[in-house]
Amino acid sequence: MNSLLRNVGYPLVIWSGLVLHCLTVFTAYKLAAPGWREYGAAVAAWIFPIVSEAVVAYYAWRATGSMVNGYSVWVLMWLAVSLGVWWLAEISTRLERERS
């Protein structure tokens, strides 16, 4: 299980997090008012990753009128994958402790 986590799980969480962050920057740019605000929103989203995901999800909700929209689905999928990998890592750690 450790090799599965090391070779698949951790890289999946890292790469999908990077892709989600780039999607966040792009979505912040698209949701902002035209002009300098678009660039300001994109730069702020790039600088503050975790906060920007929550803020962009909120503004995507307001823009679409639905809490379940394209952006929030991506955020929830990333959270589910991250929690799944963390859960598997915890199980692996506990199994290793029991074997010792």
- Write down how many β-strands occur, each being a DSSP E stretch of 2 or more residues: 0
Average pLDDT: 92
Please estimate the helix content. over 70%
Category from helices, strands and their pairing: mainly alpha
Helix run count: 4
Radius of gyration: 17 Å
Order of helices and strands: HHHH
What fraction of the residues are assigned to beta strands by DSSP? under 5%
What does the largest sheet look like?
none
> N- to C-terminal separation?
16 Å
Give the CA-based shape. elongated
Low-pLDDT runs of 5+ residues are none
Number of domains: 1
Account of the 3D structure:
This protein is mostly helical and 100 residues long. The protein has one domain (2-99). Helix content is 88%, strand content 0%. The chain is built from four helices and no strands. Helix 1 runs antiparallel to helix 2, helix 1 (2-31) packs antiparallel against helix 4 and helix 2 (36-47) crosses helix 3 (49-64). The two termini are 16 Å apart.
Task: Spell out the blueprint of helices and strands.
Elements lengths: L1 H30 L4 H12 L1 H16 L5 H30 L1
Helix pairs in contact: 1-2, 1-3, 1-4, 2-3
In short:
This protein is mainly alpha-helical and 100 residues long. It is built from 4 helices and no strands.
